[in-house]
């Protein structure tokens, strides 16, 4: 039975794969030489595998107390030029230096075996083989041979190296292993071809099913298309008749409108002749009225905005003044209440002392008993008065805290309002703990010139900003001033000492200032905070100073608008 085209194609693909891929993995094709080399040797002879050669008596010389010789690549190039094609030559070294021996490595395939045997035969032909090395006493040239079992098992430098990089194998074992690999490969390829064949048949079946289904769909589509075209033709005929009727009606209406238009034009010409004189004056008056209306509207809007701004500023100033006065009154009242509380406490202690004295005088004297009762009564009254004072004091403390919170909120609002002002003003907002870039820029200009100064200054400033925000870096020491402990900059800190030495005094002062501000205003978070600041005196500004500055600004702006 003849094979079908698919079987032929599968078999041809397998043949091409075996010819191309399997032949390449088996090494260069030189069957005659390989058969000759294999025929010369017993199949059970043990070789070091992968194929290795041994060269001895390499020329060496003594330099600085150690033997040195040519590199392995030099020997490899020499052997390659003779047609042996080694992959690598590995010189062997010992404690005295170059040993004069080397191991030659060949490819693992049969081409490598052929090159190794050619290498051995060439040296044997020159009487520099293994037997010559063992017999000849006067050894004046290089000797070489293929590594075998005795070399592998030798208790010397060559044997140790061969045992590290290879194994003992017979030619028969290697050939049997390659046969097993080839059979396994053929079996695997056969299975793959069968799987591909089944997959192809499944795809072919699906193709025929899809083709049949597609043919049915195409036929149904043609029928639908034909029906659709017939319906479209009917709709087009109906629409054309309908549009024709509408067009005729429009033509009639158009003629009527044109007639009415001509009549209106005649009447309009008559009216234009009558009113042409007054039209220019009326138009001019209308434009002036419109311009005045726009100007009045803009002026009214500006006036409203100004009034709102004035009211807001005055309200803020009045609120701050009233809150300050209330706070001052509360402080005075608290002081009075505290004095009264202390006086009542002293009176209570005095009455208790009198009571104790009266108790010790005696219980029989009626006058003493009456005095004790009076003292008890006064003591109860004073204790009630003390409780009332403590309650009032607690209420005032709560009100004071509330007022203080309101003042802090007002201070925050004032800071937000003044943030956009320039630092040239004597009252403004300062970022506490922010590092100034100018000292770094000046230092970099002195050190590197103007070319790279700006970039270097930005990098250095960014680096020190990271240091400032590092909670693990705490360059402060505690000192006692006027009996109080306070933290100051530790000038012996390694980073600060290095900064002062490398960048100068100005940069050091800028970093020290930022450190001090962070330690004063935000020691735990180590991030920048904003504060109302008096730039003229270099200190924290009071809320009254901020409000006064804001009122002065408002007065200046008001005078400018008035002028």
TrEMBL record:
<feature type="domain" description="XS">
    <location>
        <begin position="44"/>
        <end position="153"/>
    </location>
</feature>
<keyword id="KW-0175">Coiled coil</keyword>
<dbReference type="Pfam" id="PF03468">
    <property type="entry name" value="XS"/>
</dbReference>
<dbReference type="InterPro" id="IPR005380">
    <property type="entry name" value="XS_domain"/>
</dbReference>
<dbReference type="InterPro" id="IPR038588">
    <property type="entry name" value="XS_domain_sf"/>
</dbReference>
<dbReference type="GO" id="GO:0080188">
    <property type="term" value="P:gene silencing by siRNA-directed DNA methylation"/>
</dbReference>
<feature type="domain" description="Factor of DNA methylation 1-5/IDN2">
    <location>
        <begin position="430"/>
        <end position="560"/>
    </location>
</feature>
<dbReference type="InterPro" id="IPR005379">
    <property type="entry name" value="FDM1-5/IDN2_XH"/>
</dbReference>
<dbReference type="InterPro" id="IPR045177">
    <property type="entry name" value="FDM1-5/IDN2"/>
</dbReference>
<feature type="coiled-coil region">
    <location>
        <begin position="247"/>
        <end position="274"/>
    </location>
</feature>
<dbReference type="Pfam" id="PF03469">
    <property type="entry name" value="XH"/>
</dbReference>
<feature type="coiled-coil region">
    <location>
        <begin position="317"/>
        <end position="424"/>
    </location>
</feature>
<protein>
    <submittedName>
        <fullName>Uncharacterized protein</fullName>
    </submittedName>
</protein>
């Amino acid at each position: 039975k003849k094979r079908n085209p698919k079987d032929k194609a599968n078999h041809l693909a397998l043949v091409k794969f075996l010819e191309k891929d399997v032949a390449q993995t088996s090494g260069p094709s030189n069957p005659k030489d390989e058969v000759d080399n294999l025929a010369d040797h017993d199949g059970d002879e043990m070789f070091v595998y992968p194929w290795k050669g041994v060269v001895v008596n390499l020329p060496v010389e003594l330099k600085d107390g150690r033997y040195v010789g040519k590199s392995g690549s030099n020997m490899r190039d020499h052997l390659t030029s003779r047609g042996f094609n080694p992959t690598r030559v590995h010189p062997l070294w010992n404690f005295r230096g170059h040993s004069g021996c080397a191991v030659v490595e060949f490819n693992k395939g049969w081409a490598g075996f052929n090159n190794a045997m050619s290498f051995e035969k060439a040296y044997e032909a020159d009487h520099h083989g293994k037997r010559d090395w063992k017999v000849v006493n006067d050894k004046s040239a290089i000797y070489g041979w293929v590594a075998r079992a005795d070399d592998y098992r030798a208790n010397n430098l060559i044997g140790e190296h061969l045992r590290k990089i290879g194994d003992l194998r017979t030619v028969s074992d290697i050939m049997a292993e390659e046969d097993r690999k080839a059979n396994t490969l053929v079996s695997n390829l056969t299975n793959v071809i069968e799987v591909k064949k089944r997959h192809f048949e499944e795809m072919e079946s699906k193709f025929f099913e899809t083709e049949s289904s597609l043919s049915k769909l195409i036929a149904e589509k043609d029928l639908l298309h034909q029906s659709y075209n017939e319906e479209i033709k009917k709709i087009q005929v109906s629409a054309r008749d309908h549009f024709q009727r509408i067009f005729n009606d429009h033509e009639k209406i158009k003629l009527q409108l044109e007639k009415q238009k001509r009549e209106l034009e005649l009447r309009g010409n008559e009216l234009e002749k009558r009113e042409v004189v007054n039209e220019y004056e009326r138009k001019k008056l209308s434009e002036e009225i419109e311009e005045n209306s726009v100007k009045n509207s803009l002026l009214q809007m500006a006036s409203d905005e100004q009034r709102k701004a004035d009211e807001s500023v005055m309200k803020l100033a009045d609120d701050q003044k009233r809150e300050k006065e209330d706070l001052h009154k509360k402080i005075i009242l608290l002081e009075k209440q505290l004095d009264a509380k202390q006086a009542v406490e002293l009176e209570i202690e005095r009455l208790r002392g009198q009571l104790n004295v009266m108790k010790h005088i005696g219980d029989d004297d009626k006058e003493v008993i009456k005095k004790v009762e009076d003292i008890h009564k006064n003591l109860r009254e004073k204790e009630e008065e003390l409780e009332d004072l403590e309650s009032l004091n607690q209420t005032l403390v709560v009100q004071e805290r509330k007022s203080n919170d309101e003042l802090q909120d007002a201070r925050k609002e004032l800071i937000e309002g003044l943030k956009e002002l320039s630092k040239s003003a004597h009252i403004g907002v300062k970022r506490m703990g922010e590092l100034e870039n100018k000292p770094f820029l000046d230092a970099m200009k002195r050190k590197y010139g103007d070319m790279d100064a700006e970039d270097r200054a930005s990098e250095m400033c960014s680096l020190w900003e990271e240091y400032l925000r590092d909670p693990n870096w705490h360059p402060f020491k505690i000192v006692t001033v006027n009996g109080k402990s306070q933290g100051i900059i530790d000038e012996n800190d390694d980073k600060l000492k290095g900064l002062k030495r490398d960048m100068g005094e100005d940069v050091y002062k800028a970093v020290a200032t930022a450190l001090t501000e962070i330690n004063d205003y935000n020691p735990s978070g180590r991030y920048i905070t904003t504060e109302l600041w008096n730039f003229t005196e270099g200190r924290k500004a009071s809320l009254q100073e901020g409000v006064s500055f804001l009122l002065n600004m408002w007065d200046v702006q008001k005078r400018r608008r008035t002028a």
